[in-house]
Amino acid sequence: MKRAIGLDVGSKTIGVAVSDLMGWTAQGVETVKWTEPDYPVAFKRLEAIIKEYGVEIIVIGHPKNMNGSIGPRAEASEAFAREIESATGLSTVLVDERLTTMQAERMLIDADVSRKKRKQVIDKMAAVMILQSYLDRANR
């Protein structure tokens, strides 16, 4: 299994997770701050993480609308995927992430995490969920 990085791409932050060496579990790494569409700022940090972990594939959340259609956020994720593929030479996979942020928020609320702390970790949690769903499918 190739080592993977999972990204939850927003317009201001990018949640980052990486897979373990066996490709079974996803761990949150950090949240990268950026201002869309300033790709060089985001890629500088992401390329360092990719190198540090020996990542070979990039998994990006694809936030389709609930009816499955592609809206502005999904288009932004597609553009991000094209740009990072070109910058790193690694292949990307888009993973449907329709409910990941809501699931992450619910888990943090259930764990009694304060609103301020939730805001700091929500994107990283969503990245973990995006990557984990990819890993679960890949390992079936």
TrEMBL record:
All residue ranges annotated as the YqgF/RNase H-like domain in the record: 2-104
Gene Ontology molecular function: any one: nuclease activity
Gene Ontology biological process terms, A to Z: rRNA 5'-end processing
Keywords, ordered alphabetically: Cytoplasm, Hydrolase, Nuclease, Ribosome biogenesis
First-tier enzyme category under EC: hydrolase
Protein family according to the UniProt entry: Belongs to the YqgF HJR family.
UniProt name for this protein: Putative pre-16S rRNA nuclease
Protein species of origin: Exiguobacterium oxidotolerans
Recorded name of the encoding gene: rimF
